[in-house]
Amino acid sequence: MLEGFSRWVVIDLMRLSLSSRLGEALQFFIADSIKIIFLLMAMIFVIGVLRSYIPHAAMKRWMSHRGVGSYFFAAIFGAVTPFCSCSSIPIFFAFIRSGVSLGVSLAFLVTSPVINEYLFVLMLAFFGWKIACSYVASGILIGVFSGMVIEKIGLVHYLEQDMVGNNDDVPSGGVFSGFLSRLRYGGQEALSIVRKIWAWVLVGVALGAAIHNYVPKASIDALVSSTGIFSVPLAVLIGVPMYGSCAAIVPVAVALFQKGVPLGTALSFMMAVSALSLPEAVMLRRAMKLPLILIFFFMTTFAIIITGYLFNFLQNILIS
User: Fold this and answer.
1) Domain count, the chain
2) CA atoms of 295 and 150, how far apart (whole Å)
3) Residue 76: phi, psi to the nearest 5?
4) Which residues 6+ apart lie within 8 Å of 217 measured at CB?
5) Fewest CB atoms within 10 A around its CB: which of 4, 84, 98, 236?
6) Residue 9 resides in a domain
7) What is the chain's pLDDT, residue by residue, as a tens digit (320 residues)?
8) Is the entire prediction scored with pTM above 0.90?
9) Of 152, 135, 169, whose CA–CA distance to 275 is shortest?
10) Residue 99 lies in a domain
């Protein structure tokens, strides 16, 4: 249906030929934009309703004094929260103030921007279920690994003391009078988030369409072959200073992959853009001293690079 609608818009309304690069790019843009925004609305609505049943106070308890399980719970909670790297920081601050350990709080901070419901929808739509599910699993493991290592090293003394253990509770998600109020909450959250990211979706799909139809595959192949085994760390180092929504970066990563960039290289670039950014480092300075910020960035970058190499190694299995 979407393909037929996009063809009608391009051919009948715009009077363009689908055999032209512009016509093909516009059809790609129209069909994928509608599909993604519709899927985002549906997925965020469902997750919002489900999350309304879990009070924040209970989440704080589950994240405390439960051993390895606390790290996994924090990472999974991060995976279902629709936040970018900077938007996750206020909740990270709240966890630290309420007494949740540094490592568990960082497991949430790493996973929240790397994985969320709308990113999963994008991955599912563009890459398929194998790669989407593998990406989610790897993102959770990166968060757990980073949090556990930083906790094991014992870096709590690098936190600003006025941020630690003030027993401030995480803000409540609200009181719901019945199932209809939960449905309204899910609908409001879906509308609120889509209003914030729809432009990023369109920008990302437009960039993906441009790369897909205008960038010669030979140029991409030449770039990848020239960097060889170093393509993954190079992609991560390029991605870390950037700041962007994963709604915009996923279509770009897909287009690069379709042009011949190895799967792990494309995904590690996407992870780096989503998980780490210079604005995030500036905001974290409120709670962390500089050595801890540098260690946090190094650990996360290292884990993303290893994950990129792993996806490259498993590429043939995941796309079969």
Assistant:
1) 1
2) 8
3) -65, -40
4) 259, 260
5) 4
6) no
7) 556 666 666 666 666 666 677 777 787 777 777 777 776 677 668 767 876 776 656 666 666 666 788 899 888 888 877 666 555 766 777 677 667 888 888 898 888 877 877 678 778 877 888 888 988 898 899 889 888 988 888 888 888 776 665 444 333 445 677 888 888 888 887 887 677 667 766 776 777 677 666 766 566 556 656 777 888 898 888 777 665 556 667 777 887 887 778 888 888 888 887 777 666 677 677 778 888 888 888 888 888 899 899 999 988 888 87
8) no
9) 135
10) yes
Neighbours of 317 (CB within 10 A): 9
Q: Which residue has the tokens 């879990």?
A: 54
- Number of Cβ within 10 Å of residue 307's Cβ equals 24
159 pairs with which residues across the strands? 288
Contacts of 284 (CB under 8 A, 6+ apart): 89, 293, 296
- Minimal CA–CA distance to 80: which of 106, 105, 46? 46
Q: Which domain holds residue 175?
A: 20-318
Residue 10 maps to a domain: no
Length of the chain: 320
In a domain, 304, yes or no: yes
Rounded CA gap, 239 and 234, in Å?
9
* Closest-CA residue to 159 (of 280, 287, 283): 287
